[in-house]
Amino acid sequence: MTSAREDILKGIRGALKRGPLDATQQSALATRVPAHTRPAIDEDAVERFVRKFESRAGTVARVATLRNVPAAVEAYREAQGLPQRAAVGAGLKSLRWAKGWEVHHGAAGSDEALAVSPALAGIAETGSLLLASGPDSPTTHNFVPDDHVVVLEAKQIVMHFEEAWAMLRARPEGIARATNIISGPSRTADVEQTIQLGAHGPRRVHVILVG
Amino acid sequence: MEIRSNEFKGRAVFAIHDASLQQALGKAREGFVGKRAQQAAELPEFEQLREEAKALKNHILDHLDHYLERYEQAVTAAGGQVHWARDAEEARTIILGICKRVGAKTVTKGKSMVSEEIGLNEALIDEGMEVVETDLGEYIIQLAHEPPSHIIAPAVHKTKDQVSDLFEAAHGGPRKTTVPELVDEARRMLRDKYFRADVGITGGNFLVAETGSSMIVTNEGNGDLTQTLAKVHIVTSGIERVVPTLDDATLFLRLLARSATGQETETYTTLSTGPRRADDLDGPEEYHVVLVDNGRSRMLAGRFREMLRCIRCGACMNHCPVYGAVGGHAYGWVYPGPMGSVLTPLITGLDNAYDLPNACTLNGRCASVCPVKIPLPDLLRELRHMQHQQEITPAMQRRALKLWRFAATQPRLYHAGERIAARLLAAIGRKGRIRRLPLASAWTDVRDLPAPAGRTFLELWQGKRGKS
Ligand code: SF4
Known about the structure:
The structure holds two protein chains of two kinds. In chain A, the strands form three sheets. Chain A has a six-stranded parallel β-sheet, with helices on both faces. In chain A, strands 8-5-6-9 form a four-stranded mixed β-sheet, sandwiched between helices. Chain A contains six helices and twelve strands. The radius of gyration of chain A is 21 Å and the shape is elongated. In chain A, strand 5 and strand 6 form a beta hairpin. By secondary structure, chain A is α/β, with parallel strands linked by helices. The longest helix of chain A has 12 residues, at about 5-15. By secondary structure, chain B is an alpha/beta fold. Chain B folds into two domains: about 5-295, NagB/RpiA/CoA transferase-like (Rossmann fold), CATH 3.40.50.10420; about 405-465, no CATH class. Chain B is about 50% helix and about 10% strand. Chain B contains 22 helices and twelve strands. Chain B has helices spanning about 10-15, 20-40, 45-60, 65-75, 90-100, 115, 120-125, 135-145, 160-170, 180-195, 220-230, 245-260, 295-300, 315-320, 320-325, 335-350, 365-370, 375-390, 395-410, 410-430, 440-445, 455-465; strands spanning about 80-85, 105-110, 130-135, 200, 205-210, 215-220, 230-240, 240-245, 270, 285-290, 435, 450. A six-stranded parallel β-sheet of chain B has the order 1-10-7-4-2-3, with helices on both faces. In chain B, helix 3 crosses helix 12 (about 245-260). In chain B, about 50% of the residues are buried. Chains A and B meet through helix 1, helix 2, helix 5, helix 6 and strand 9 of A and helix 2, helix 3, helix 4, helix 8 and helix 10 of B. The structure holds iron/sulfur cluster (SF4). Iron/sulfur cluster (SF4) binds next to helix 14 of chain B.
């Protein structure tokens, strides 16, 4: 009995009226460089990122340097009435937190209220954040807590998705296990088309834009 | 899932008289159509992207074997496992096998149309597992014991009041009546399930050969919680969903959200590449992809290859007047609307879905919005032709068509017939309308037939020409 894999591939080749591709054809496809149209954008990338991200109920605060991040998180925490506790991605280990703060770098458990994550890139085209999973930025931080704060440096903002993919490929560890592109708080329109934030993921996503 | 597409007519009549359904459908129509039009207008490159997406899909289909093999290699290199399933049963067996091996008790699910197509839930439940749909729309219809009525918005046929009733029955009171309360209640009920889940099953909008990643595009984040927190992540996807590179996927991403929900982007686009890594703090321990053929390679061979370009955006049903009038359940299987009317007979058999290709006015709106330019009306017409050839079309209709063909190829006879009919119909018409007509009661029972003027178009035309 042939395997399902063989059968399906045979079926496909039969439908295409040919056998397997030869080495030359295969390498031509492997080196093919896609060149699809990218939307033309005539706007400053940082400005556009902020405008688009805010248009989908995300919020943005801007600070001068990374050193200012804990104070910006504190301001956000206070405004939301959250306790001084956060799951912080180890990628932000160097941050110095004020007294009273309880910070850990583990995964987010079901009672986690606030997470702070480092972004790999911002995509101006749609106003989206790109986060790559790993010990520096566990995926649970992005989805479990009600409040998600993401630290993004202005120089990490690119115009189009394609540039963000290039940043992913250029990492020594390559593509992450989970690559999360996040364009605002979780939402649903499943009850009568009414948009409601905080469906299953974070109710609020706040970007601290550095630089 | 049971195929009930041959009950289309009865179910359609029922649907038209269902006041709640009509209320829900009315709301959906306005929202989807307007928002998509606005998004398309705001992106000057939109039409160009549609053209490129069509060409790219054709390129992928021409080299489908190659891209699937490359995808498999990349998944394996990332520590994941690819399984191939010829049909629905094989897919169920593979997934059941994994679930049983890890002793799964609770299975969470993100929205996956392929899992509906292969009838997965019933199979898991029969084995004693608790299956929890986590997409809010899917959760609602799971409580209602109904199949989805739309591929993007599975509970689009439900009104808020109906959701309130379902939630009250399932969760106990007090009854929640506002959308925020309802969404909150679902959020609370599902939280604990994500953490308890042994297996999390999601679909895959795209499978990226370059990186071995599966990609999901969602708004709620339920798919991400499903695949991050379960011990095992299983992706179910059709073989046609593979794309060569991340840049290629991007072309479709630019079209998908705009066409589907009329958003510039959905909230979450997620790439999953293999299981948890050595230094990861979270993520599933196992990562599996089940590639489902189920009639797709057969479709590749013939005149329906174009249907395999479908990226499941739902725009065709949002713009379909028939879908808009009867909703998704009338179509009787997993895929409704224009794309469903093509897919259902092709996957389940021509004689299992006789009415679907005929439940179409050939108005062409679906094809004019399809992001990958599938000529849906042409494919539906082709299916009608095949029904006729295989004698699935009712004998009476075939005889009538034969008679018509005979007459239509004899101009004198045809015109004579037309003249008689025009005069007869004009004679029985009252004030230009005919209220009852034998053999046409399907029409005249519900509306009047406009009576002809008494003379045929040709006669009038010739009269005019004679004068000038
Ligand atoms: S046929 Fe076209 S419009 Fe319909 S769901 Fe598929 S891609 Fe979307």
